[in-house]
């Protein structure tokens, strides 16, 4: 599947934390082939031989696994790119360190790889070794020199090889750093430079921003899009929403896009499917329609409504501030009615919220026990557990409201609220926002007053 818009339509396994298993990676490559992707960049930060111990060779058992993975990529018309991240400890002027990098590249070249990347991101902009301070005018000069020498080495070995790099200032903004400008001036124009947008995790990636960055680096950038990735401080969130905020005319200013997925490979397919639709035709891309189809593909037609209900409560991400817009609206209506003195027994807002919580109850049970996509189920389970605690909090709160309205003892319901609150507060994941907590606190405060 080709595209008239983006020459490179890729995925970069570039997150921190536990990276994909061999089987997950091969499944991802097959999925990519089915959805029009054409490049995969291997760059998991926690692969010790990729970053922290980049000088060390891969163990013997890795060769068979990488070979199988690369063959799956080739079969699915995916360009396998191997990335190495030596910046944490490299001596740029060292011939030994240069040879350590080329040894890694030879290892993958012999397995059929012709695309390589030097990732110099997430490192301190300072020299570690005195030899580098003596040799280079600046950090950018060192990066350009290393990449240029590596490019020449690759081309001498095989004219079909290509090289990309991720700079240290990968989320730069006008007027741009001296590092960015120097790198653009000194780096071989055939070496692709990655760019995440004006932010590391960009809410929007505009064509005007990519154009400005491209002018600074003197070439069209290769976008490294940090959505739906959820590593680091975002690890508590599940990013199940569609890609949005990407300029319909971004393709005019970039050489391609690499998408950084979540640690949860199967769940990442939801966002990846929508991104595939965007890259196929960004002009007519409809995020909502694409999302509905992606949910159906992930869960199956029968279970897609349940997954959609969960997903609309898991939208907090760099793209969206709110986690659960519909729930927030329902809770807000109940709070307004309470403040206005409307009887909770007859309040249609409370009845609507109760019905929504019943839907969540059924959806949660369905996803946990009936959905046929076992890989997705396993990844969702921690959030399903928390989702159910929120449901319990909401149901206990409604029960307390009803009992209070009839002058009945609602202390048991209050205890259930407290149990649910404690479980939610200590849970390592996040879903559903926080609106139900305010309602629970309202009735809890009344229990003390009464």
Provide keyphrases for this structure.
alpha/beta, 450 residues, 8-stranded parallel beta barrel, 8 strands, Methane Monooxygenase Hydroxylase, Chain G, domain 1, TIM Barrel, 15 helices
List the helices and strands and how they pair.
Blueprint lengths: L7 E6 L8 H13 L4 E4 L17 H16 L3 E6 L10 H15 L5 E5 L10 H6 L3 H19 L4 E5 L11 H9 L5 E4 L11 H11 L4 E4 L30 E4 L5 H16 L6 H13 L4 H8 L13 H15 L8 H22 L4 H32 L5 H16 L8 H15 L1
Parallel strand pairs: 1-2, 1-8, 2-3, 3-4, 4-5, 5-6, 6-7, 7-8
What does this structure look like?
With 450 residues, the chain is an alpha/beta fold. It folds into two domains: 8-299, TIM Barrel, CATH 3.20.20.80; 325-449, Up-down Bundle (Methane Monooxygenase Hydroxylase, Chain G, domain 1). The chain is 50% helix and 8% strand. Strands 1-2-3-4-5-6-7-8 form an eight-stranded parallel β-barrel, surrounded by five helices. Helix 6 links the parallel strand 5 and strand 6.
